[in-house]
Structure formats: C-alpha cells, structure tokens
C-alpha cells in the first residue's frame, strides 16, 4: 500500500513532467479551482492564469532539476518543500537559477490538488 508521502512524491514528479510538456489535462485535474500561488516577482497566480500561461506558451521550461527537501503530512493536507534548478520563460519573463518552492496539496474527494504555494529565487544561474 502506498503512503501519502509516496503518493505526493509521485505527483510532484508527474507535475514536473506536466510543467515541461504543458500538460493541460494534468494541470486542470491537480490544480484546485481556488489555487493561490505567489510567483518570484510577487504576482499572485490563480489556476486560470497558470493554465493560460501553458496554453499560450508563455510558460516554457528549457531545463529543470528537482531537489526535494521535505514532505510533511498534516491531516488531509501535504506540505512540500522543493528546490529547482531551472531555466526557461514564465509569463513572458526569463527564469534562470535556483528556486525554492513551498506547495500545499489537499485531499479533495479521491484526488490530491494543489491549493497554494510560493516560490522564491535563491540564486541566479
């Protein structure tokens, strides 16, 4: 039987693949309708903004490597700390360097969905 941490770890890896491929189907399924995410520039990102950035190709990842730091289960919510070494374009702005993310997954019926998070640029490439 898979633990919640293993399940979220697998979803995080699938999320990386979905972001690289602009997999709208995966993102629609796993981003909560009320998602709130703070981008490195301070902009608040909603589910619709995120999906629009992939549909319009304003989000393009050229390279990404994940370094998972922690996964904590708190009731039906899971907190993930992960750093990415990445390069590409986000909402038309170049991204390049190491970014630290906190992401919140919540169990919603049978699926986990991302309800919130934030990203901070730790270093430039």
Provide a descriptive summary of the structure in words.
The mean pLDDT is 93. Strand 1 (31-38) and strand 2 (44-45) form a beta hairpin. This protein has a single domain (4-124), classed as Nuclear Transport Factor 2, Chain: A (Roll). The radius of gyration is 14 Å and the shape is globular. The termini are far apart. 27% of the residues lie in helices and 55% in strands. The chain is built from three helices and six strands. It has 125 residues and is α+β, with helices and mostly antiparallel strands. The protein has a six-stranded mixed β-sheet.
Radius of gyration: 14 Å
Q: How big a fraction of the residues is strand?
A: over 45%
Mean pLDDT: 93
**Secondary-structure arrangement, i.e. CATH architecture:** Roll
* Largest sheet geometry: 6 strands, mixed
Quickly describe the structure.
The chain is an alpha+beta fold. Helices cover 27% and strands 55% of the residues. Strands 2-1-6-5-4-3 form a six-stranded mixed beta sheet.
Key phrases:
NTF2-like_dom_sf, 125 residues, DUF4440, globular, alpha+beta, Nuclear Transport Factor 2, Chain: A, single chain, 3 helices, six-stranded mixed β-sheet, Nuclear transport factor 2 family protein
């Amino acid at each position: 039987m898979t633990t919640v941490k293993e399940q979220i770890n697998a979803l995080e890896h699938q999320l990386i693949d979905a972001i690289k491929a602009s997999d709208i189907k995966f993102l629609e399924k796993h981003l909560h309708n009320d998602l709130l995410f703070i981008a490195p520039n301070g902009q608040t990102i909603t589910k619709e903004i995120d999906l629009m950035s992939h549909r319009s190709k304003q989000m393009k990842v050229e390279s990404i490597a994940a370094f998972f730091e922690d996964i904590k289960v708190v009731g039906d919510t899971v907190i993930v700390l992960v750093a990415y070494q990445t390069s590409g374009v986000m909402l038309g702005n170049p991204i390049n360097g190491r970014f630290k993310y906190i992401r919140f997954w919540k169990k919603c019926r049978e699926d986990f969905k991302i309800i919130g998070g934030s990203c901070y640029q730790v270093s430039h490439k």
